[in-house]
Amino acid sequence: MKRQLPILVTAIIGIFMILSFFVPHQAVSVPADFLQACAVILVAFGYVLGGANALRVNFDAIYQRQPGWGYKVVLVVSLLATVVIGAVEGEGFLNPGTRSKWIYDQIYSPMAATMFALLAFYIASAAFRAFRIRTTEAALLAAAALIVMLGRVPIGNLMTGWLPEPVRLQAVQEWIMNWPQNAAKRAILIGAALGVMATGLRVILGIERSYLSGED
């Protein structure tokens, strides 16, 4: 019963949510909206649980003086201070002039920008390894990547400014992004959507049970 009941509840809710997209009736839409609101509440509790787990893990590391425990102290203090300040300031905690807004603009945003700037070097290194031309497909990929990168920066216009408009790097990279890139992206998204649909049907039909404590 411990296994069958969650499977039954999951199947009923899944079928109900699918029906809400095709049956425009209050008997279906109202309960579906209620279930979606319940999902949002569960996600909120998930954030609280994740924060509590992060505190527990880092407190243990600080108590045991594990390597890098000083950074964990900074993380815990920052987490608690941000939560307390946001709770004190209330609903408008991100309004201009608030302390939470100052923390976001002056601390979080610069740190996030720094992290992404550092990631750019790792991406460039990975791209260099990935674009080693050993096959025809790799050569096409490398050429397209080079055209797109040069076409999106001012040096691309300087290099090809003397050419007719349709064959300049900027125009070519726009064509690559609008046609081949979009076609490939849509194919990937369609494949991912079909995978999501297949997984959802497996869960609704009780075939996929990995969410039940790892049961296959």
- Indicate the low-confidence ranges by residue numbers: none
The SS-based structural class is mainly alpha
What's the order of the H and E elements? HHHHHHHH
Residues in helix, %: over 70%
Largest sheet: none
Molecular shape: extended
* Mean pLDDT metric: 88
- What is the number of helical segments per DSSP (H or I, 4+ residues)? 8
- What Rg, in angstroms, do the CA atoms define? 26 Å
In words, what does this structure look like?
This protein has 216 residues and is mainly alpha-helical. The protein has helices spanning 4-20, 26-63, 69-89, 99-130, 136-151, 154-160, 169-178, 180-204. The longest helix is centred in the first third of the chain and has 38 residues, at 26-63. The two termini are 16 Å apart.
Blueprint (SSEs and pairs):
Blueprint: H1 4-20, H2 26-63, H3 69-89, H4 99-130, H5 136-151, H6 154-160, H7 169-178, H8 180-204
Helix pairs in contact: 1-2, 2-3, 5-7, 7-8
Give the tags.
216 residues; mainly alpha; 77% helix
Question: Can you give me a brief rundown of this structure?
Answer:
The protein is mainly alpha-helical.
